[in-house]
Amino acid sequence: MPELKFSAVDTALAMEEVQKVLGPDALILSTERRNGMIEIVATNDP
């Protein structure tokens, strides 16, 4: 699966989205704050 971006108002909500979409084996590639939002780039590609 390619890299996906997730944005939310805080880290906890962004991580919930990551786990919902990619599952428990998700690999976080980056985390940044942009325009008051948390942006996480993640994948589940081995």
What does this molecule look like?
The protein has 46 residues and is of the alpha+beta class. It has one domain. 26% of the residues lie in helices and 43% in strands. The chain has one helix at 11-22; strands spanning 4-8, 27-34, 37-43. Strands 1-3-2 form a three-stranded antiparallel beta sheet, with helices on one face. A hairpin with a 2-residue loop joins strand 2 and strand 3 (37-43). The protein is globular. The termini are close together. The model has no long low-confidence stretch (mean pLDDT 95).
Task: Summarize the topology.
Elements: E1 4-8, H1 11-22, E2 27-34, E3 37-43
Mean pLDDT: 95
Number of domain units: 1
Give me the number of helical elements: 1
Enumerate the strands of the largest sheet in spatial order, edge to edge or round the barrel.
Answer: 1-3-2
Q: Quick one: overall form?
A: globular
Strand element count: 3
Estimated share of beta-strand residues: 35-45%
Rg of Cα set: 10 Å
Tell me about the biggest sheet? 3 strands, antiparallel
